[in-house]
Amino acid sequence: AACERPFGGGRRRAGMPLSTSDMCIEVVKPATSTWECALWQLVAPDDRGRVTLYVSHWWGMSFVQVVAAIEAACAVEGGGLGAEEERVYFCLVINNQWEADAEEIPFEQLARRFTASIRSASRVAAMGIPWHTPAILRRAWCVYELYLAAEMGKRVELCMPPEERADFVRKLQWELEKVVAHLSRVSIALAEASKARDRQEIMALVARTVGVAVLDARTVAVLRDALADVAREALRERPDDIILVDQLGVLLEMQGRLEEAETLHRRALE
Prior knowledge:
Strand order of the largest sheet: 2-1-3-4
Order of helices and strands: HEHEHHHEHEHHHHHH
Number of strands: 4
Strand content: 5-15%
Number of helices: 12
Radius of gyration: 19 Å
Shape: globular
């Protein structure tokens, strides 16, 4: 079987990995075709609830990797509520994909929908896939979502599948400057959108509100906070890792958190 792949180019051959876009076309649309509704509307009422985790992702990402990253974000040891308690806003499931096909949804309506959803969530999961060049940093909607989360004071978490996170932590130990540089490459002016109109509207909105420079700087800052959280979590898992202790201190020093950084540097020297 094959279907159109708007983000993959051409048609997906049997056996090729599913992107989130492929999942929409091959699974979500057929499952909801009778009612032409959103997938969440087929979920039992007892399994619904107020959103606790908003997922910022790109449709071209591997669906399996996105799900693995969401599961990791929901894990209690990672600061989540546990899979049974989390209520996730994942636009593949929440938005009516038939509505998107049937009509051109006004930009203002989309912006209000995403803004309200982020405001209602407790935290935002930024998909760090792949961690060294996160696709979300090249997508205009995603960069704007991270900025909104920062402005609303939401906790932004850099979420990755387990294997991606393990590699990320290794690099964090030995190549901190490169890791920081990778996550500082934010430029909404260079970001793309699947619809040219959306990108134009986002840029116009940014221009008449905060401006590109402020938005980029605020987004970089929230990503560095998220990076520090990953390092803290890794340190809880391996409290005797002196290199990680020292590198977290360096990272916090970069952020101007000098007292916390000094404490960690002293701990590394003991």
